[in-house]
């Protein structure tokens, strides 16, 4: 049998523990895996692009455990009653190739994306950061806000979305949780006075949701939504304002903000900062940019954390995904050779 | 909710309808998809190799439906009580990216691999073929035999396996089903007098389980087991005996028997034979070789057939794999913002 966490179990897991606490704990799994970055077998994700959106498979493996995630990104979905992103993922044992754990990952991806942003910002943002601008108030927004509060203590939000209903939803969800929220009329207004700017929009276009003139010295830019060929969010001039940090360079060159600049544009892989081999922020005035596209190791960490967290509870269910014949060479025996009656 | 066929349902489906009949019906789905080959978005599968074996993701898409399969290949597994190959697969809607159908595919892969072999042999073997040599009597063997009987009328088997217990298992499973089976002491003996030779062994090595001198004029070679870098079965000289047919050339160059010959070695993609744009067998004396590695379109066809076949029956279950918030932009609303008590 294969361990299974479905949507119902995932909702109970997050509701019971609280997203803020879970993401803070998940950061320790993420950091542990980022620190042993070189022990993973890594590859760019495999994307199937259509006019509707993209479907991706994101595999990664260490010597013991293989993981992959199925995830889609369909920017027109919300207008048709569907979510932009849905996902599920699997852990498998490398020694025999058997899948051992299957989980919904629509919610888990939201948690891991925000936890990754917060992990990176803890090392790159100014230590005194309290105020975050949020450009885009869609599905990912509340998770970002809670992860940044749990991990960095950010509790002041300046929010802008082209869709006022999305902004209202964010305020409705987060105001009761103790955030100080300012609703803004433009991205430029949101960025004003912010220590951190998170861009998280869904439009599949070479958009510029944040302009160079809106970036002030000392800011940390957490650029989440530019994550596909032809889908970016930042004025390319911003990339020259300070060091740019990425997850996995070969994938980010294809999918990230840096797809709009030269193929040899210098970047730092974030794991090197954690490992101490490259510098992170070097002054309070510096602008730092995290050009995030999402990488498979983050899903590996999230699945590992989830599996450990639900082990032995009623949230860990099982499904019969793997056939197990008594004799491993007699698969046919499972479906029964009909014997003629004597 | 996502449609789900687990192991129990799969076993009931195959036991109820019979593997031979299901594979014969599956061939019409395979041929329909092979005939519209150019309408698919195709790519080599993504393989993660370790000393234990390989884990692969095999995606493919047409304009409406995306499919992928997770499959492993671990040659040492049977000696440790595990199967060599396990698999599961998914169908998704391209228009919104939602996964709509999940199935076990250990058994389904066995069915689709044999159905594909039989589909190809129906077009390439001599029409009067009655006798098949089977080199390798592992998990795939009975399925091959039944598919070839259902689709071509082959009912005489000459069987050899290095493991006598595997051969005994095959005889135990198939003799009651009306096959005329001759157990042989070597691959050469098995091939003697056969119209078709199926090689289906699991050893991960550049093995030669069939030698050139054992190949007689008029034979069709159905080479199944050579399907990974460094894993082959045929004496390379056999590849020059007659035309070599493949599924998807870029993948077969990496994984198939033709990995041992020049990168420009001429091959014919089988779909072209079906489409009438390339010749298949042109004489009764010709040797034909199907260098099969397994391609994602075959899984697409098999999943499509399974989904249609179980629709509306109690074999089609459902699992909660995709979160469905009332407001697609309010994913966070699903996990509940805890509101402070007044």
Layout of secondary structure:
2 copies of one chain form a homodimer.
Chain A: E1 2-5, H1 7-17, H2 19-35, E2 46-50, E3 53-61, E4 65-73, E5 87-93, E6 99-104, H3 106-124, E7 131-135, H4 141-152, E8 156-160, H5 164-174, E9 180-183, H6 187-191, E10 196-199, E11 206-210, E12 220-223, E13 232-234, E14 244-246, H7 249-255, E15 268-269, H8 270-275, E16 288-291, H9 296-310, E17 317-319
Parallel strand pairs in A: 1-6, 7-8, 7-10, 8-9, 10-12, 11-13, 12-16, 14-15, 14-16
Antiparallel strand pairs in A: 1-17, 2-3, 3-4, 4-5, 5-6
Describe the structure in your own words.
The structure is a homodimer of 342-residue chains. Chain A has 342 residues and is an alpha/beta fold. Chain A has two domains: 145 residues, ornithine cyclodeaminase, domain 1 (2-Layer Sandwich), CATH 3.30.1780.10; 181 residues, NAD(P)-binding Rossmann-like Domain (Rossmann fold, 3-Layer(aba) Sandwich). Chain A has nine helices and 17 strands. In chain A, helix 4 links the parallel strand 7 and strand 8. In chain A, helix 2 crosses helix 3 and helix 2 packs across helix 4. Chain A is globular and about 70 Å long. At the A-B interface, helix 1, strand 2, strand 3, strand 4 and strand 5 of A face helix 1, strand 2, strand 3, strand 4 and strand 5 of B.
């Amino acid at each position: 049998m294969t361990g299974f966490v479905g949507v119902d179990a995932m909702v109970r897991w997050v509701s019971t523990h609280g997203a803020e606490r879970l993401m803070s704990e998940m950061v320790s799994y993420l950091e542990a895996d980022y620190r042993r970055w070189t022990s993973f077998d890594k590859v760019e994700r495999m994307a199937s692009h259509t006019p509707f959106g993209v479907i991706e498979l994101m595999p990664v493996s260490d010597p013991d455990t293989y993981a992959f995630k199925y995830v889609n990104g369909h920017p027109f979905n919300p207008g048709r009653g569907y979510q932009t992103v849905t996902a599920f993922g699997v852990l498998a044992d490398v020694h025999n190739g058997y899948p051992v754990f299957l989980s919904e990952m629509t919610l888990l991806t939201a948690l891991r994306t925000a936890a990754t942003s917060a992990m990176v910002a803890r090392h790159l943002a100014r230590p005194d950061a309290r105020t975050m601008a949020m450009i885009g108030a869609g599905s990912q927004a509340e998770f970002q806000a809670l992860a940044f509060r749990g991990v960095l203590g950010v509790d002041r939000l300046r929010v802008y979305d082209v869709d006022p209903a999305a902004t209202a939803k964010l305020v409705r969800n987060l105001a009761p949780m103790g955030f100080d929220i300012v609703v803004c009329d433009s991205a430029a207004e949101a960025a004003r006075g912010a220590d951190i700017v998170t861009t998280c929009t869904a439009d599949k276009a070479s958009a510029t949701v944040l302009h160079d003139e809106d970036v002030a010295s000392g800011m940390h830019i957490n650029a989440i939504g530019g994550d596909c060929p032809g889908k970016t969010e930042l004025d390319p001039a911003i990339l020259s304002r300070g060091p740019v940090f990425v997850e996995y360079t070969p994938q980010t060159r294809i999918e990230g903000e840096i797809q709009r600049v030269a193929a040899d544009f210098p970047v730092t892989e974030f794991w090197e900062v954690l490992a101490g081999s490259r510098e992170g922020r070097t002054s309070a005035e510096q602008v730092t940019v995290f050009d995030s596209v999402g990488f498979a190791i983050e899903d590996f960490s999230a699945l590992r954390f989830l599996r450990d967290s639900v082990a032995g509870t009623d949230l860990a269910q099982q499904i019969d995904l793997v056939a197990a014949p008594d004799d491993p060479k007699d698969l046919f025996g499972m479906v029964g050779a009909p014997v003629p009656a004597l």
